[in-house]
Structure formats: C-alpha cells, structure tokens
Amino acid sequence: MTKKEFKAESKRLLEMMVNSIYSQKEIFVRELISNASDAIDKMYYKALTDDSISFNQDDFFIRVSSDKTARTLTIEDTGIGMTEDELERNLGTIAESGSLAFKKENEVKDGHDIIGQFGVGFYSAFMAADRVTVETKSIHSDQAFRWESDGVDGYTIEPSDKKAAGTTITVHLKDNGEEDSYDEFLEENRLKTIIKKYSDFIRYPILMNVTVQKPKEDSEETEEVQEEQTINSMVPIWRKNKADLTDEDYRNFYHEKHYGFDQPLKHVHINVDGTIRYSSILFIPETTPFDYYSSEFEKGLELYSSGVLIMEKCPDLLPDYFSFVKGMVDSEDLSLNISREMLQHDRQLKLIAKNIKSKVKKELQSMLKNDRENYEKFYTSFGRQLKFGVYNDFGQHKEDLKDLLLFHSSAEKKLVSLAEYIERMPEDQKYIYYASGDSIDRIEKLPQAELVKDKGYEILYFTEEVDEFAIKMMQEYDGKEFKSVSSGDLDLETEEEKKESEETASEHKELFDRMKGLLGSKVKEVRLSKRLKSHPVCLTAEGEVTIEMEKILAQMPQ
Ligand code: ADP
Ligand code: MG
Q: Where is the composition biased (Basic and acidic residues) (predicted)?
C-alpha cells in the first residue's frame, strides 16, 4: 500500500490549522459532529429528488463512543458516506469542501442548511489526535473504504468491509503525558457537556452510552448500567412556534443557558425572514449581575450558525447601553471565517445588531408604557447604564435613549419620565428644572429649590453622578432646555421684577463689595438674590458646570 502525500500547501495549512486556527481543543468534536449532520442532510436532499432513496427520519443518527483502553473517540453517522474518489478529494485536500460543492450542485437554499463550507473542520481532529481513521461507504458505491492519516506524512486509502452506508471516524487521542493530556475526551460527562454546549440543536439524535443507576431486580439496591441516550435536544426553542411556547418555557431556557439566576422580566422572540434571516431570543434580566458595573463584565449574545454554537458572547450584537440584554442569535446567513470563532465584521452581522437594538428599544418603551412596575424594576437595576449611554459617545445615542430615562422628582414620590414632566408643565414654565445632591432628602432641603417649587414648577432630583452629565449631553428635551436650580440665572422673574432687583442691588453695592473683600478668593462674586425664601444665603455656580459637577470633576483622575 503506497502512502500518498498531502499536497505541499496542504501540509503547511494543516500545521497552521492544528496549532492556531481554533482556540480550544474541544472544538474538534463540534466539527466532526457537524460533518456527520451534513452527511445525513445530504441523504435528505438526495431523497427529495431521487425516488430510489428513502429517507426515514428514524433511521438516521450520530453515535459518539469512547474506548478508554484503546484511547479512541469514535463518531459514527448513517449519512451519505464517501466514495473512494470523494475520500481522496475531500480529505486528501485541505480546504476542499465537499459540502460547499454539494450545496452548489444541488442548489440547496432555504431552511435546512448544511454547515460545512471551508473544508478544514475535519482536520481539527488533529488537535487532539495523532491518528485518524475514517471508514466510509457511500450510498453510490458497493465498496467501502478506509482512510487513515497521522496528519503529517500523508494518508492511506484501502478497501474496507464496512457494510452499512455512512461514515465512522475514529480519533486516536494523543498521549503526551499529564501536562498535555487528552483523556478528557474519553470521559462520559465531559463529552456530554461538549455535545450539549456546541451541538445541542443538531437536527438528528446524537446517541451516547451513558452510565445510569437502575434498581436491581427484586431488590432495594441500585446498580450501574449502560444505557444509550440521546444527548442533544435537537429542536431549538427558537425554531419552535411562538404560539406553542409558554412563559415558563422561556424562563426554563434562560436558566438552562445560565443567562442569570434571576427571573427575566421580559423575553422577546424574533424570527426575521427577509433580506437577512435570523432567529433570536432576548431577555431583559431583573437584577444587576454582581460584576455589571465593573470592567470584568463582558456583554454579548450567544451566536449560532444553523444551530451550531459559534461564539458564547458575541459583543458586536449589542450596543454598550443595552449590555444587560441576555440571549442568543441564530443565523444561516453569516459569513464566518474558517475557525468559525471570529466573524468577519460583515454587513449581515451589523444588520442583525441594528435590528436587535431597535427591538430592545421598542420592548423597553412598551414596558415603560404598559408594564410600569416591571420597567421600574428594570430601571433600578440598569437605568444607570442607559444614562451612561446618553453621556458616552458624545451623546450620539441620546435619541435612542432619551424616552427611556426616569428621574426622581419633586412632584411625586416616584420615578418620572421626561415626557411625563413636560406634560405636567405649567404654560409659563420655560425650562426643565433639576437639582443635584447625594440624596433626595438633601436635595429637598436645598435653599435653591424652594423658589422654583414655590412657582409651582416640578424639579427633577439627580442623585447619581451620571445624571447631570447625561442631561448636559442632551441639552434639551422636546424643545425645553434643562436648568439647574443652582444656576445663576433661573429666569423666573418678569421684566419689572428684574429691573427692581437691579435697583436694589446698586443701592447695596457697598455692602456686597465689603462681603467680597472679606471672603476674598473663596467666592467669585457676592450679589443680591431673589431666589431665597427661608434661607439667608445660598451658593451658586457660574455657567454650565454646577457645584455638584465641579465636585465630581475635581475627583476625576486628570
Ligand atoms: P467542511 O465541512 O467545511 O466542508 P471539513 O473539513 O469539515 O469541511 O470536511 C471536508 C469534506 O469532507 C466535507 O465537505 C465532506 O464532503 C467530507 N466529509 C467530512 N466528514 C464527512 C462525513 N462524516 N460523511 C461524509 N462526508 C464527510
Ligand atoms: Mg465540516
């Protein structure tokens, strides 16, 4: 038997592949299972057009088994198999995708998508293997073949006596001692976890022998027995009909996926079938994750391509100000690169992200309108992030966010939106007034607030540092500017009143000059105020920056 060499470029590619394309070894299990699923899909497609092939869903499965003594992991499928020629072409040439060719030949479009397209997934097996054996029998051939390779020197092909159509891939695991061990791929529980994680939504059953406790016959005792089970759940919840799903189903999914320990306040189930196709389930959590407002926190949604997990946290799908959203996106239309782990920053992904952003925004708006109690729970946990959103990026996002903001207010002992504030404004009120302070209690005692309240104007209470920065970025809401009750010019007086105060001020000029002389550089100016009622004096800031902001700015690292 002569050994055939991989093409020169293949050799180099293989080396690169094994060492650098994939970030985790366990990925090879996903790739081999995806290939098995593709092979069964191809049977399905052939059956659609060829009457001599029957496709009975129950006859098709993928079986994963391991042998601790031989140190092998085996993945078997009942798919279309490969002829000698196909073995040569698909496994003898790296970057040759039989699946891509199949899709083109058979003009496979729509729903059921075949995963393969790059022609490198198979070789990921060499991340964990020092030898791979492929036994395969094509439905188009009476003779089966065995392909074998150690990944470096080339491969052999010889006839085999495999009877049934399909492919069996045996991965002989490397044994580099304790430091670099591959034993994990022999462990039942580890394999189960990997299959669940990446291949849970493969459409065909992935079978595996698992150890279960069974009661012994005629006895109280139990015994360990091996039982073949289907490991994957096959139909992803997002492919199911919304009408058939209950809130409970979504909550279970939230917890199964470990999106959070809390109960989500809302879920959104999206199925888009337009220029871009994708499904998504999004959740708005109730409680702030412990690391949410820290640099440890990683935003992102799970990303699937045709039901196969590509990325656990794809950050590009969410804007920072919606980083609290949990959930997943599945799309057949993404251009993935060969490792499937890095996405090209492509148009499709951006479109999906844009779409998701507007869905989340709409959902929050409708919550604010129709489910105030839950919205306030949400806002208590994540409102700060929305305000950061208005402030950051030079306020580019303020249009998206301004209607979602809530503030404490003098009018009601609850959070109010800016729209609600505007609606209550008396006709003669020109500004949206606000006051900043450490707590509502302290703000209520501010001398500056009294006069504004006396006029019958509502005041927004800013208790968080970001509040004032955010509204400075917004400048106005619905055509009304924001004005701090501590700013110099409150503009509450009529022309006549203004004239009168000017006169009083000049009458007492001497007194003010003397006071300024005593205080020196501690104040910029001492002047007459009309805004005081029960307090003798108050401090105000000049211009745009209020005293509260000055305090924060002074604390910031320069
Ligand atoms: P891709 O899946 O991206 O096409 P792979 O390197 O994973 O690339 O596989 C290369 C090709 O080998 C596949 O396109 C397919 O034609 C063939 N192949 C791999 N595994 C199987 C299998 N289990 N059954 C049938 N054909 C297979
Ligand atoms: Mg593949």
A: 496-507
The answer to whether the Cα torsion of 259, 260, 261, 266 is positive or negative is negative
- The secondary element (H helix, E strand) that includes residue 28 is helix 27-49
- Which of 90, 133, 136, 139 for a ligand 1 pocket mutation test, highest count of atoms within 8 Å of Cβ? 90
φ/ψ region of 542 (left if φ > 0, alpha if ψ in -120 to 50, else beta) reads beta
Enumerate residues 6+ apart whose C-beta is below 8 A from 149. Answer: 91, 131, 132, 155, 156
Give the pLDDT band of residue 543 (cuts 50, 70, 90).
low
Q: End-to-end CA distance of the chain, in Å? A: 73
Q: Pull the structure tokens for residue 554.
A: 């002074």
pLDDT for the residue numbered 458 = 93
Span from the CA of 75 to the centroid of ligand 2 (angstroms): 13
pLDDT band per the 50, 70, 90 thresholds, residue 558: very low
Task: Please state the length of the chain.
Answer: 558
* 67 is annotated as contributing to ligand binding: no
Atom of ligand 1 nearest to the CA of 42: 25
Q: Is residue 44 within 8 Å of 151, Cβ to Cβ?
A: no
**Integer Cα distance of 512 and 118 in angstroms:** 81
The response to whether 167 counts as a known ligand-binding position is yes
Instruction: Classify the complex by whether its ipTM is higher than 0.95, answering yes or no.
Output: yes
Q: Tokens representing 165?
A: 């159509």
Structure tokens at 396: 């580019």
Other Cβ atoms within 10 Å of 7 Cβ, number: 15
122 is in an annotated binding site: yes
Between the CA of 37 and the centroid of ligand 2 the distance, in Å, is: 9
Q: Which of 387, 375, 380, 329 is nearest to 353 (CA)?
A: 329
- Ligand 2 centroid to Cα of residue 97, in Å, is 8
What pLDDT is stored for residue 148 in this prediction? 96
Secondary structure class of 107 (helix, strand, coil): coil
**In the block, residue with structure tokens 């990921």:** 124
Q: Which residues contact 411 (CB under 8 A, 6 or more apart)?
A: 421, 424, 458
CA distance 149 to 127: 13
Q: Could you please report the per-residue DSSP string of 488-502?
A: S----S-HHHHHHHH
Residues 74, 65: contact at Cβ < 8 Å?
yes
Q: Which of 103, 110, 133 is nearest to 38 (CA)?
A: 103
The pLDDT assigned to 242 comes to 92
Strands 277-284 and 326-331: antiparallel
Adjacency order of strands within the sheet including 326-331: 266-273, 277-284, 326-331, 301-305, 308-314
Task: Give residues (CB < 6 A) around ligand 1.
Answer: 31, 35-36, 39, 77, 79-82, 90-91, 97-100, 116-122, 167
Is 30 annotated in a binding site? The answer is: no
Q: Pick from 153, 189, 196, 191: which is nearest to 171 by CA?
A: 191
Burial of residue 480, with CB atoms counted within 10 A of its CB: 0-12 exposed, 13-18 middle, 19 or more buried: middle
